[in-house]
Amino acid sequence: MSENADDRFALRQLVEDWAVWRDAGDWERFATVWHSEDGWMTATWFQGSARDFIKLSREGFESGVNISHFLGGHTADIVDGRAIAQTKMTINQRATVDGVEVDVACTGRFYDFCARGADGWKIVRRQPIYEKDRLDLVDPSAQLTIDPQLLTQFPLGYRYLAYVQTKAGFTVKSGLPGLTGDAVLRLYDEGARWLAGAASPGDPH
Length: 205
Known about the structure:
This protein has helices at 3-24, 27-30, 50-62, 148-151, 159-167, 182-195, and strands at residues 40-42, 47-49, 66-79, 82-97, 100-117, 120-137. It is α+β, with helices and mostly antiparallel strands and 205 residues long. It has one domain (3-195): Nuclear Transport Factor 2, Chain: A (Roll), CATH 3.10.450. The protein has a 6-stranded mixed beta sheet with strand order 2-1-6-5-4-3.
């Protein structure tokens, strides 16, 4: 295999390790996918360092928060020791909303700023792109009334995910990147700058 093919394989493995180890609660190995100094994670319910994300994910896992990730197609742009990896994904969460058990699924992409060091490829920054979502009742015979005022506060790409998480007590960030719009265009520009040698992986705030 060529060096570039080796890098592509390693980046795909990195993304898959993230999903499997995080969802399995394998926190020691999960910590190894992140850049040790400045790994950063953005999610609907969290924006901060990889270290804090691991801590809060573990607390949620141990308290019964049920979130899982499924991966699809993958591509990577690689320039020397830097890469932008994009991976199709679905975030699934099971929760209780107003006494009714629901499943919410949000489909989009993981957009990862990666760097290669002596210990291989690591994620420096992860920014999900939220493309579309839906909500289903676990028991089809149940009845759930959606609060339209709360629902429409959030962007279309993760509207139902945000609704469920808000009902569960999380503070959800608005304005995250979707399939189109200024936020995702800004993210693409930050990715291009990262590959061109920018000092930081954009502004995750």
